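Action item from last week, closing it out:
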Amino acid sequence: MQESTKGTLAATSAFLLWSILPIFWKSLAEVPVQQTTAHRVIWTLLILIIILSARGKLKGLITALRSPSIILIHLAAALCLSANWLLYVWATLNDRILEGALGYYINPFLYIILGSLFMGEKHTRMQLVAIIIAAAGVALQFPAVQGVPWTAIGLAITFAGYGMIRKTSPLGSFDGLTLETAIMLPLSITYLCMTHQNHGAFGDDSTVSLLLIATGVATSAPLLCFARGARSISLSLLGILQFIGPTGQLLIGWLMYHEPMPDLRILSFAVIWIAIIIYIISLRIKPQRP
């Protein structure tokens, strides 16, 4: 199997997993967002260390720590990632799943812009038309939320920034994510110690405790797939695949949790999917320079 095909499959798997994660985070509605995020860091790091140790690659990560440039790259990635985690869970628990979906609909266009500016990626006329149509579809959502969707914008910026930064790192997906969660670990432990000095750091009952531990799997599985895909496919293709996630979130927020879906929002999503279809078709046609 070609490297690009593996990358496409990995990225697709990541977005499918992300599309159904609101259901999992809703089960932790009684836990503060900061506490949930702290546990995500701790349990994700533990899972990654076990995987690296089993593969005998922990020494490679330790060697990478000798490079200040690598540490700086993943420090920036960790900042983007932690901000994205906080925003996403907060939006899910505050009945803003649809706004979160909007953020991830915006995100691919940031990938496309970054790809053009920094990676020299070019687009055909059909692809440019698709981008314009999709941008119009996203714009239709702004009046639907009756204001500036700051959560959506924040999610788009932080995740696009993470994807771009990860593409510049020489580390593999496992090593990179392990380093990023290790960077976030001290702050996470400090938060839990300061806010839960007596009890409650692991939840008020065994079910919540198990769910908090499971945040490691819920976090690491899609992120590893995403990091794997981001390293071997173009930012433009990564951006198109990104639409899988918010579409699943949209359906869950609308059909399962009954968040409002006015006609304008329905129209905007329809326009966005027309753009996606055009873009996918363009990928199968011989490129023509605009």
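Closing note: The longest helix spans residues 68-93.
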